[in-house]
Every structure is written in C-alpha cells, then in structure tokens.
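Worked example 2:
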Amino acid sequence: MAEENFDQENSSKERLDEGLEEFKGQEGEAPQDEELTTLPEELSNKEESFSFKRESAPKEEEKPLEQNETKEIAWYQDKKFLSLVAGSIIIVCSLIFTLFYLTFNGDNIKADIIATKQQETVKNEALDESYQYNIAKIDTMIKKANALYLKGEIEQALKAYEQIAIYNESLSSYNLGVSQMNENKFEEALQNFKKAINNGENQTVSAINAAVCALRLNDKERFKYYIDLAQVYLPKEGNSKLYDYYLALINFYKGYYPEALQMFQKTSTEPYSDSAKYLSAKIYSKMDLNSKAITYLKEQNSLESSLSLGLLYARIGEYQKAKNALNTALKIERDFNQSLAAITLIDLKIGQYQEMLSRLNNAYKNKEDRYRILDTYKIKVNLNKDLFNIQIAQENFSRNFFKQPKEQFDLLFYYAPYQVFDSKQSSLYIKKANITYFVDDSVDASFYLKTGKALSSTNVRIASIVNLALNQRLKQANKGFQDLIKEYPEHSILHYNLALTYAQLKNYNLAYKHFSSSYHLNPKNYLAGVFAIFCAKISGIDTTKFYNEIQDNISNDKNLTPSSLYRNMFFLANEDYTSILPYLDEVKKDNHPLSLIFEAIAFKNNNLDNQADIKIAQLKSELPNDVLSNILYFNSLNTKQDIKDYAQNAQIYFQNAKLDYKSIFGGAIIAREKYTSLMQIAGLLNLERQKFKDLLNISNTRDEGLIQALAYIDIFSLHFEEAYALYNTLIDNYKVNDSHTLFLASVAAIGSNNPNSAIALLQLAKLKDNNNKESKAALGLLYQQVQNYEPALLQYKDLPDNFKSEFFTFEIKR
C-alpha cells in the first residue's frame, strides 16, 4: 500500500518494494497516479429527522361566487395543481422505494471511501439517517406548499411544489451518481453529480464525489475544479454534524494531509468515525509512520482492511503478520489478485521460492495468468544496502563464526591438508613453513601407480602444484590439478586435491564431484568422503545412499578407531553433535590445524564456548601469521564486547598485527571475506583499500590475486565503478572465468547501474556452476525486472525454500 520500510518506522532501509507504494501527495497538489474511489453515497446534511405524514386540508362548504369575483378553485379540483402534485408524489414514492431498498440491502452497497487501489468495502450503516432526513425535508416542503395553497397563495404554492420537484430531481441525480460510482461508471456519475450541484442541493458532497470521479478518470483539470468547488460550497454545511468530515475530505484530496488529519481526529459521528480512522491510516502511511497507520486501521471495524494491513506489515518487515493478513484478503474475490501478487513478493523477499511457486500454480493453471500476477508490481533489482552501510553492518555482524553449517564446513576446508604420496619428498618442492600441517601422506599409495619411478615422478608434479596452493596461488593450483588429472583421470589423490581447491574457491558443486570421485577410487580416503558430504549439504544434493555407503565402510574398517577424526567428522555432517563428545573428552597430542578447528567447532555446537576458545588459541599459536587464525582468535577474545568496543578493539589489534596478507590476495575465499567484513565493521575498510591500491601501483606485475582482493573491497566500500572495471580486467585480460568471480562482477555491475551486463555475467556464472544459488536468485529477479517472466520462474524453480540472497534484493517501481 505504501513505500515499505522493512526494519522500522521512518527508516531509510530496504523496502518491500521500496514499494507497494502509493502516491506521495505534496501539499497543495492533487494525489497523482492513483485509483480513487467513491465516497459513501449517504454523505449529505444530517439534521433532525422527522416522520413522514401527509396532512389533508379541512373541507370547506362551497359558496356561490359573487359577480366579478373569480371563483377560487379547490386544490383537489385544480387539474394543473393535481398534475404537479401527482408528479411529485410519483417522484417521492420512487425515492421512498429506492431508499427503502437501499436501506434493507445495505450489505450489497459497495462504497469506497479512500483513494487506494484496494477499493475497500463500506456498509451503508448510516443510510437510514440520510433517508429520514431526505423524507423529512420533502414532507416539510409539502406541508408548506399545502399551507400556502390553502391560504390562497396559489403562485407561491406552485413555486413551492416546483421546488419539491427540483429537489427530488437533485436527489435522484445524486443517488444515481453514487450508484454509477459503485459500478465504476465514473463519467456518467460525474454528470449526475454535476446536475445535483446545478440544482442547488447536496452541493458540497456532490462536488467532492465529482472530484473523485474526475480523479478516477485521470482528469486533473476537472478534479481541481470540483474539489475547489466543494471548498466554495463548504460554508453552507456550517451547521452540519459532518462539517469537519467534509473539510477533512477536501483537505485530503487536495493533499493537505496534516490539516486533514486534524479534522479526521475531530470526526466522531457514526459511522464516519471509522472512515476517518481509515483515511488517517492512509495519511500516516504516506508519512512513513507505519505503526500508527496499522494502529488506526485496526481501531476501525467497518472497513475490510486485510489487504492494507498486509501491505503495511510487509512494509515494516513483519512478514509473517503480513502473510497472515494477506491470506485473509485472498478470500475476498475483489482483493484476490493483488493479495496474491503481494504474497508472491514477500516470498521472494524471504526466500520461500517453492512455496511461492506452489501458491501461484494452484491459483492459476494458465502461465499467462501467472505472468499477469507477477506483472502487478514492477520491481527494480538492487543491492542489499545492509551489506554496505557500516552502522547496519555492525548491527547485523555475527560474532558467532560457527553459527551455520556452511561456515563450519568452509573453515574445515580452509585448514584441510593436501594429499601427497611422500611428504618428505614433497617438502623439497614446497616452499612453506610447517608443511606437515598442510600435506598428508597417510593415504595408501598402492591404489595409484605401480612403479616407484612413476610414483615418484607424479608426486613431484603434485607437490609443485600443492606449492602453488600453499603459497596462496589457489587458482593457479586449481588449473594445474585440472591439467594433471587429464593424464591420470583415475587418480584418487588428484581428485581430492582438485576438489579441495574447488571447495576453497566456493565452487561446491565441482568440489562434490571430485571429492566423491576420489572416495570411490579409494574407499579408504575417508576425508574425501566426508568432504563430499559437506559439499553436498551446501549444494542441496541428496546423498542418503552415498552417506550410508561411507558409514558401512567405516564400520567395517577395523583399523579405524572410534576416536578417529574422520569418523567423528561424519557426526558433524549429520548434525549429531552429542556423539562427538566422547572424542572431545580424549586427550590428544595432535595439534594439526584441521583437528584443532574441528574440535573448536564441536565444542561450539555443544555450547562449550570456553573449551572452543582454548582450541582457537592453540590454532593461533600454531599459525601466528595466518589471517583467518588471527580473526578467529580476536573474535574469541571480544565476543562478549559491545559492538562499538568490538570494532574499536579490532582497529587496535589488526593495525598492529603482522599478518600474511597473501591469503587475502590469492588464497581461500573465506579469508578474504572474513577479513573484509571485519575491516568494514571496524571502519578500516577505506584504509585497507588504499593500502592495496598502493601495493598494486608499486607492483612490477599486475598480480591477479591483488586485483581480486581490491575489487572485492571496492564493492564493500561502495566504489562500484572501480570494482566493475577491475572485474572486467580480470575477465578480459586475465581470463578469469570462475563462477564466483563472475558473480561478484555482476554485483559490481548492478552497483554501477549496468543491469544488462549483470544479466550476461550471471548467465556465465550459472554456466560455470549450475548450482550457484546466488546467481540463480539474482538472475530470476533481473529477468522479472525486465518482465521476462518465464525464465524468471525457471530460475526460482531451481531454488530451495529458506534461501535468501546475500547480495541482491529488489524494490517496487513507483
């Protein structure tokens, strides 16, 4: 119904549309671009009511006329008079019948009282008062006319009867106009209100209704004429109980909202008090005082407001309340389509894709009808502002780095070792300290190559590629493993290593493919098996059969003890955290990073935070210069701090820390993301950006990893144009075409207002990784923005419920 603020009243945050938006009338201006509806047909002067009784004149004896004396003709003998009275009686009777019909069929009268697309229904509860007043006025006029005639004032009596006829015609024109408004015949209604005004009766309310008709016809000139005319006639209503209400309506339609509010709050006459509350709610919604608008809507009972309430709740981010109200509105035939369109948008906002599709398909079997529902609200795709505003980022920043399974799995991938045949031989080719932490030669070499010479030669090549990965040149390592696996396609270690690079680059679909291949080539490579399950869970792949296969192999492996790390990692994959507790109770001498981070995660999942912090401290001790280890350690020391103190402490800690920044430039993506996020909430992002720009300027070679890091920081520091240019450099000059980079390039494209480029980039990202949910969600929204609904729905079809895009959202076009 109005521009949505999902977080709170008067906030500039993201809106459900920045939308479900109505016009924002400026003072002194008529509301624009809005469907306006009729006022209640019973709007007229409300004076004292009288019973309707005709009184007959007493009979008199006839006297002979004297000479030259004109014989006074009795009223019942006067044909002209009788004809006039008969005509008046017919009109009066017709009016009585009409009013009685309307009175006893009030439930069928639809009268909208507010300029809104919802066309809320009003019962004519006060129609009896109008009826009594109109009949009383006619009765009084007839009495006066009869008295004048009986007194012999024939000319005056005839004029009085003529006024009765004119008044009846005016009433007929007014009531006909209201009836035509209810039938959306606005031009015909306007003409009848014009007649009523010209006949001098019901002028104020007729002028208001005529103005509403003109606005419905988008005739701004006639609207202004009639609303001004209503203001001219308003003084005639000075004694009316509805004077304040009339004045409020005029101010409302003129766009003088504060003045209208003041008058609506004075309206206490029933049933107009409910109408005044409804209109007040509308004004508050225009002022972004959404909670007040909701309060006023809920205080009135006469008007069906489920649709309006649903839209307002959506506007302040109360999505469940919004859906409850809109589900009620769905039961009203008039509001069905708009309610369905609104619920569809809410589901897109909160990531209920399958629920949305199911509801849409059940409502309409014809795809054209479904497209029509999507077309109700035009959307504009934009970036989630919460990601880029420091204050909001601080409010939303989670200091629980182990909150989601995906985050836990990413940490395990980060600290996982690469596999080789002979770690001693491999160490000669890997120039990295603590190599034993990051290579593993425990896998049985007999599965691979038969001759020692071939085994040694292959190990040298594997070691040289692992060297790239461990020295934060992860993409080059990934390319090297891709090339080598073409020579040895049935090599378990190669599949594992390639999969690990994919996992660290967040291409979980390809990581799953190669981890599962590695396991099937060597069923004792349990780390490959458990990592395959992790990737499958992130990607939404059903692995029930695969999981049972691994569990059977573990159970039958007599060399695998209950205290095995790999066995307990399967408990984590199955979210069976309590089963890990016996493993955690054991005293272990192994300080391998993978073991330490696994224990920290397991302690966290069992709410043993102190023990988790001890393991993180050990991890930082083993890897003192590692960026991610330092982030985890800092976080463990400051988790309970106020966010402002947390940010201030981060500034002190990381400005003085001596870290290996190469992991941010070219290592696992999680290091770059966590570091950027922490620098952002600490207010250091622009300083880091400048530092990376300086590094890039003094570098002899245009380092791909440095460009990647700077482009990512540019996004979060709102330098979208620069980020877009850097990503284009990576794609065009460095031939970087992985799904994650292409997706981030699309984020920069949207930020720099290049939606067409964003669509092309997202299509490429989806081709590279068909399971990239972020790409599909963004692509679906962008297709919907350009009103290409069929491919939009196809993208949504591939997305699960409860998936919410981190980067992309939308607003409603005004």
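The first helix runs from residue 79 to 104. Residues 30-52+72-254 form a domain with the Serine Threonine Protein Phosphatase 5, Tetratricopeptide repeat fold (CATH 1.25.40).
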